User: What shape does this take?
Amino acid sequence: MSELSALLQEDRRFDPSAEFVKHAHVSDPGVYAAAAADPEGFWANFARELEWMQPWSKVLDWQPPHAQWFVGGKLNVAVNCLDRHVRTWRRNKAAFIWEGEPGDRRTLTYFDLHRQVCQFANVLKGLGVTKGDRVALYLPLIPELAIAMLACARIGAVHSVVFGGFSAESLRDRINDAQARVLVTADGGYRRGSIIPLKQMADEALKETPSIEHVVIVKRGHGDIPVHVTEGRDRWYHRLMDDASADCPPEEMDAEDMLYILYTSGTTGKPKGIVHTTAGYLLGVYATTKWVFDLKDDDVYWCTADIGWVTGHSYVVYGPLANGATVVMYEGAPDWPRKDRFWEIIERYGVTIFYTAPTAIRAFMRWGTDWPAGRNLSSLRLLGSVGEPINPEAWIWYHQHIGHERCPVVDTWWQTETGSILISPLPGVTSTKPGSATQPFPGISVKVLTQRGEDVPVGGGLLALTRPWPSMLRGIYGDPERYVQQYWSRWSNGIYFTGDGAKIDEDGYYWLLGRVDDVLNVAGHRIGTMEVESALVDHPNVAEAAVVGRVHQIKGHALCAFVTVKEGVGHSESLADELKGHVAHKIGAIARPDDIIFAADLPKTRSGKIMRRLLRDIADGKTLGDTTTLADPSVVARLKAQYEDET
Ligand code: PRX
Assistant: This one.
């Protein structure tokens, strides 16, 4: 099948309804041309909607590949997310409506949130944290995580959130890379009815984290989670908060001061600390939350991502709070205690905007339509998707069974590195095609290029960003060379390589095809094959390992590990289980391989490179039929092969 005929197969189009267009923030397609004609002017106009302590003198200083946005400007992110709402009628508007997995509930107004953020900012100061210091956060999805992030932002400390599903070793490595002085954790969290003992795991990590001076423990549990408190080092959050003043003047931050570090997987065994700064990042998430989700003051907005991932940073915390939104937060799993937990939450709080991942949508499809049909979803008015390519079948199901054909669907493409959404429909403007993320956001320049950097006007290639954008990463923490090497060296200096394959169709619509490098997307989580391979060869019985992704109907990809064992070690089911457990222990449960395949040898090129393409074919061959879930898996397979041949 040619690429073109594959594209022509998906010719369904969904236009925004007249009703939606009438009330949308953006309904004029002219915004695209206007922003393209003057991108810096476009961003500057948007930036005027934020609150500045000192105006900028220059919108962009671009010394490829280093950008500075809003040069000379001063502002504080917490002020933009809290103080400016507290001064208005939004003071007692709900900022967070939180629900724990066991069913406990809390609502925090903007006034509440402001008070608690100021108090915790004073707690951090009391522990000696000053501007520029790193604070590690290892917490479940509870309001205290957002409070701690905003408290850091208020005093100019840099947070580094570590997803609560990561292992003690992963936490240790991230703390050490960032050289964090304080760790904020919790006794634990709840997931599918069981307890994740975060403090216990943190204690394991803390044996080898010399930079940590203080640990703050949030009491999430109800006395059912045992905690060991180390005198002199560990303190309870609630006790510290009791004594903390709610008066904390915000630090005046430079536009380019660091806001946070967030680790993400790359093509090497070591996760990269992606650095985001103050003004550009805030602007990117503010603008996209407003326009992509068409966010209004009376919306009830729910992004289901964990705050431990970039989606949670940008679209649970900073983007919606900068817009003064009411944000729903839910701690647990979608199928606990029943498979309609999400729909129950939408019904209970009258959620109007719902943002989730294709992997979840495919699981809902499998569970059947009775679950959503049993709940009142009539409050919904817009649906979003993020994290991986959404196959047209899942898009249509989402549109029909959750959106009841009334809600626009926005498929949003972006990355930890991009900070905010870069390719997405504008719901009041764009005619959507199921499976396509459609168009770059106004002011964003995207191209599909060949390996050699030639423009692909129609067809498949590699996705490139050809101009800097405000919320772009400013670097990899502590590794300036890797920043240049990883993102800006594939083509000319100044063109960013995303690592993704993409097709562009005759209407100029973008179709994301998945990673072409050694990064896998498993259930919407980004996992480096090298990280899993390193964890496997760390096991005493393993000689060599190669990890590839196999197409999986729900998770997008499953992790398939080919392993050769050391002399005298037998291949057994129990060893396979042990290896899976070993990886989960070293990295976290999200990286547990789905399959362990014992091989006598791994296929290699003459230069010794493992022929992953062959392994992928073998892995996929076992599950032919599953490949129908992708629009055209052969395209990405071809791109990957080409990429590997040429790198
Ligand atoms: O491959 C793309 C995929 O997720 C990668 C980025 O992962 P991460 O940094 O963890 O951020 C995830 C949340 C933004 C991308 O390189 N990806 C993300 N969104 C989409 C997507 N692939 C296709 N369509 C999307 N909408």
